[in-house]
Amino acid sequence: MRISKVCAIINLAGQEVKLKPLTDHRPIAALPFDGRYRIIDFMLSSVSQANLESVAIFIEESGRSIYDHIRSGRDWDLDGSLYGGVFTYSHQRRKLADYLIHQQNESFYENHMMFTDRAYADYVVIMEGDAVHNIDLVEVLNWHEQHEGEITVAYKKMPLQAAIDAETEAVYVIGDDKSLLDIELMSTVSEENVAVDCGVYVINRTTLFDIFETAEREGYLVDIGSLVRANLTKYPVRFYEYEGYLAKITSVQAYYDANMSMLRPEIFDSLHKGDNCIVTRSKSGAPTYYGENAVVKNAQIATGCIIEGHVENSIISRKTLIEPEAFVGNSVIGAGAKVKRGSRIEYAILDKGVVVESGVQIVGTADNPIVISKKAHIQLGDKL
């Protein structure tokens, strides 16, 4: 396949409300993951590995955190094409409100269609921004060309309970020829293993534009991912089975569990295996310093940290300070956090720039981790 025939759209329209306060000022795709990455890195890395030249990012609200992270797209080799690059479209929710109020003449999906036209694309890859995976888009695109479908959906088989934990609303019933037989609501499913949507689709340009035109005519104006899923029963669909790591970031609990799973070598390897490397924005920094009395057990610790206390079963992001006699266990610690002497953090998520003063105890549970908002300053006696 000539990759120039393909463009990508990354749809950042996840359920941010379920991840508050982590998503108070950023989309799910901008959340840090595994102490080093942002969730959007996994989509951009798949696009880069497939040598796609053009990618558009549609953002529900402000895109400041996304712009700051991606910049020119150089780290993903998305800045070198004369006709391609990274294109961002923010405030989609506001655009919809304005469109409904003023009944504007242009299409609500005008930017989607204009981007696709200018990319000269015959196929469009659509990726949801609320999942962690390492999907080989070249394999998916080849599958799409080889099978008789207008839409290809990437799916993963997983145990029913795992799908329930991921707050999956519906699963697919797939035929032997990889066609769609049915879409079942989770409340009616009894099988032990189910086919869960990965949030990755390949669709013919003509089919996508037909879907846009029908949606405009019928007044069904939603984000592009929801629109494609709503039309799966109306067009020939084929399913591509993805067998690697998949985490749907649909809640605070799902976000915590996905991060903590990276401490298990077999899970970490299933995400990073093969030649498809996960790329993030390059940041130079000093090595992490470990004090004479520091204790570290089963932890991932990024660069630029100062570790003088006890860290166990935790993910620690860049430039974090853990002072002597402080304990951090079973937690996810954001960049630039400061955990002062004698404090105790267990089963918690500390967002970027949090300061925990001496003697403070923040203790949640594995099923209910405590979340501390970005740049919060927690002192002894504060109500959490």
TrEMBL record:
Domain Nucleotidyl transferase residue range list: 9-159
Keywords: Glycogen biosynthesis
InterPro entries, sorted: ADP-Glc_PPase, GlgDAde_trans, GlmU/GlgC-like_hexapep, NTP_transferase_dom, Nucleotide-diphossugar_trans, Trimer_LpxA-like_sf
Stored SUPFAM superfamilies: Nucleotide-diphospho-sugar transferases, Trimeric LpxA-like enzymes
Start and end residues of each Glucose-1-phosphate adenylyltransferase/Bifunctional protein GlmU-like C-terminal hexapeptide domain: 292-362
Keyword S-adenosyl-L-methionine among UniProt keywords: no
UniProt xrefs under Pfam families: Hexapep_GlmU, NTP_transferase
Protein name according to UniProt: Uncharacterized protein
